[in-house]
Amino acid sequence: MRFFVRRGIFYLVTLWAAITINFFLPRMMPGDPITALIASRQGQITPEQAESIRVLFGLDNEQSLWQQYTSYLSQILHGDLGIAFSQFPTPVITIIKDTLPWTLGLVGLSTIIAVVVGTTVGTYIGWRRGTKADIVLPITTFFSSVPYFWLGLVAILLFSVTWKIFPSSKGYQPGLVPGWNWEFISSVLYHGALPAITIVLSAVAGWILGMRNMMVTVSSEDYVTVAQAKGLSERRVMVSYAARNAVLPQISSFALALGFVVGGTLIMEMVFSYPGIGYSLFQAVSAKDYPLMQGCFLVITLSILVFNLLADIVYAFLDPRTRQEG
Amino acid sequence: MTVEPAHLTPQEMDPPNSTAGVARGKVDRASQLLFLRNGKVITGLLILAFFTLLAIIGPWVAPYDPDALGEDSVAPPSLQHWFGTANLGQDIFSQVLVGTRSVMFVGFVAGILATLIAVLVGVTAGYLGGAADEGLSLLSNVFLVLPALPLIIVIAGPLDGANSLVVAIVIAITAWAWGARVLRAQTLSHRRRDYVEAARANGESTPRIVLAEILPNLSAIIASSFVGTVTFAILTQVTLAFIGVTGLDQWSWGTVLFNAQSNQALIRGAWWWFVPAGLCIAAVGVALALVNFGIDEFVNPRLRATGKYAKALKKRGVRARVGFTPVDRHEEPSTPVVPASGTVLVTEES
Description:
The complex is a heterodimer.
Chain A: H1 2-28, H2 33-40, H3 47-57, H4 65-77, H5 92-127, H6 136-145, H7 148-162, H8 182-219, H9 222-229, H10 234-272, H11 277-287, H12 290-318, H13 320-325
Chain B: H1 20-24, H2 26-37, H3 39-61, H4 92-128, H5 130-145, H6 148-156, H7 164-175, H8 177-191, H9 194-201, H10 206-217, H11 219-242, H12 253-262, H13 271-299, H14 301-315
Helix pairs in contact in B: 3-4, 3-13, 4-5, 4-7, 4-8, 4-11, 4-12, 5-8, 6-7, 7-11, 8-11, 9-10, 11-12, 11-13, 12-13, 13-14
């Protein structure tokens, strides 16, 4: 249990750090773009909205920094992230609520596929090292070296423009009403296939390489040799003895890779005009919509922390040593 | 990547550029050669040298001004325009050439800065221990979990058209944590070893122990974390340019791709607009990955032996499997001994 308490405290500290970074950034930036934004919406913006923006961006110069900080914290904790100027007058939190599920779905699905496929392939080529299976390594290295978005561009060119197999943008068929019906769900899957495949292609290399190297290391441990000497089937030795131990570092590196995968997914959404949080972030960047930008950053960080916590729980479940120490 | 330093002598962990190696003479020169004899490392370094050269001379050898308008709009590659032209007739080959500089600049500057922070934080935390360690570890863990790309966007977004140096600094601020974590773990394992204890007993000062005794032994790991950071920085720079966070007046491979995307190059089927820039990124990325594989194999003898023995095993029709990772760098694997049934053959020197 102590393990979880420690991790929980760590995640709280990280969340606090993210919020604090968000608090100080606009206050350190040169110039005052926000006043200009408020001025440009003179008359349309309600006093409460203007006040909320002032708290977020530190325009209350009469207040001390500490007072600004506390009112900022309380406003964030109440879920008020200001209003999005690029989609005036929608509150930032509404936009994020609409877009977050798309990103979670895309990241979640493609990460699970990448982990399962990568670990399986890595186990195999780590076991059969030095054979023709090693050809997988340079190929996946190439896919992990090109940026996500470029792979996305090529995928669109090949599969949407040249051979019109998949749609090139949007999350579902325009005109459909979102709902739990087969027509909508199939449209979502159809539109999500190309982005998901591209993310898996980019992300899988790291998993293959990590698993392969762990397999090479673990295979020469004594207990694997003993298992082999006992005459257990090769498959059993590979899966239950070598892979089972090699997979643990994979899970701890999952948490570290997550930020990178999420970053890549955000970019992929920009390329595919996918209605997720990355596309909102992209629109915010091009429209210089700072409240939306910062809101996206906070929510993305929060989601990553939640996923990290899940990875911790899975790890503790798989590795009894973590539980004993706690 | 697990690095098992326990069975490595300090000499084995020296990369070729280690200054400590010069004094130690013959043994180290052999291991330097070993590092450079690795085909992967040579290929990677050659590709990197090529792009570094382009970064330096690119703007001078570019046949056209990258912004100059031309007559052919979106023309496919020809003798006049090797990579074709963009929507207003600009020469894409020149754009890619000129753009090389900012990509390589950001990559290396961010790599150097982030590695410096990582060494500072990681080695300090590992060597001092105690409260300093707790604090610095917490700091690097927090930076490790914060999503780098959104953080960079939030920092760099309001800095209108940030120049390359600012972008490099922002990337460095977000990218040092992984290296710091690895270095801390390594320093921790070195701190109580005999050679450090001996130095301490000799009355060497703490800075000298850290800089002259421990640091040279960490150089392989520092090199590997530097290469990793450069890869990350290059991908990030290109990505930032692609989404329009950096100024569009500075050419980068990402700027070319941004223009291609915003001018519907895909719908027009203008593959020449984005394929060359992407392949350049991939080439640099693969080169860095190759160097890193080389370092990995250099540090972890098990990985090295695997590659080394593969051919000899194949010749004899043996498939490498359990318990077969001979670790001996000096003997050529002319006749590998095949264990009858799971005999471990590990001939480690040291």
